[in-house]
Amino acid sequence: WLVLDGPVDAIWIENMNTVLDDNRKLCLPNSEIIAMSQTMSMIFEVGDLAVASPATVSRCGMVYLEPASLGWRPLLASWLASLPKALGSKAKRHLEVLFDWALPACLRFVRRELEELSPSEDAGLARGAMRMIESCLDDFVQAPAVAEGGEAPQPPGSAIDEATKATQLEGLFLFALVWSTGATCDSAGRVKFDAFFRVLAAGGVPEGYADFLPAKRPILTVQPIPDSMPAGGSLAPQTVYDYNFDRANCRWVPWVATVPPLAIPPGAGFSDIMVPTKDSARYTYLLDLAIQHRQPLLMVGPSGTGKTCIIAAHLLSGKSLTQELWTPISVTLSARTSANMLQEQVDGSLDKRKKGVYGPAIGKRCVVFVDDLNMPAKEVYGAQPPLELLRQACDYEGWYGRDNLFRQMCDVQFVAAMGPPGGGRAYVPN
Q: Is the pLDDT assigned to residue 378 strictly greater than 70?
């Protein structure tokens, strides 16, 4: 099987017509002919057929995969099966009940009421919630055996009783739902989502969403997210975005309480000073959570909101990501950036570990920060080659070099930032 994954280009797809015929031959410009054997077949995995001709379409069998037909429930089933054994079957069943209860209504609210800065799919938002919950379950992960043939020590989470475990999972679920389904909208949408989510988390039925909630709803044992906190002798209103869940103590902690004290080193330049705020605290926490657990992350926001500053400060500060264990690579895309330029920048910073395998120095992990992700100009037929290259790296953990050999990338992950479409920035498909 020869899998061609990516957008269709009207020129090269026309050249494939003789291969897709009964002839099964590729005719090259130098009059050379390459025949495809009977044991070979081709699969085109494309997003649309906007520039494909009827001649190409008529030669291929077409299968349309609609996102809604698959849904997110198969992803949930396979994810629950991959969770640590120390979590226990009862806790996994409780997680499944929580997802079936709240996720359909939240997804419906996002599609119906909110405006997203960058488009998303239901399965992608559900997967984001699952990844965030999994990243917070380190206490249940089995440690490797110290000696060969010896028994591995039991994870700390195995000693937690079922009631406490259920409360912790409920808090993590609510926190993950806020920062997955509720994280893609603008500031006005967050106010709407806050009001909707508080009714839902309290066990109520938001108006117009009875059809998306099960008849039997779980009764949560975790305390509700506070809606206000003392400030200057009065109560300041708070949203669900203003709190982090402390799993050890099963309570909600305001992000303001986690802001580190401001320490300006002597002789620091004005442009090097970054004043920590509630926003920088929560986005740095989410960024660190994703990086430590090998999860890709994309930050989207208008210019001047501090995306680049927050990511660069976290990658280069050396506090959480020490230079002995981490290698940051920063790549800024522009309208003139080509796929070759991007590939050379990343490949030039990696070492060869063995034949066909590349990565940072052994014992280190590499984080590639791609800034202005949607800046590359679209080509004639609408594709953005640098983004297709990054997508291949995320999907297949590597890409093809200039020598047509596949370069597997080990211990490499991607973090990106971009602004909303418009003003030279292209629309990035989901």
A: yes
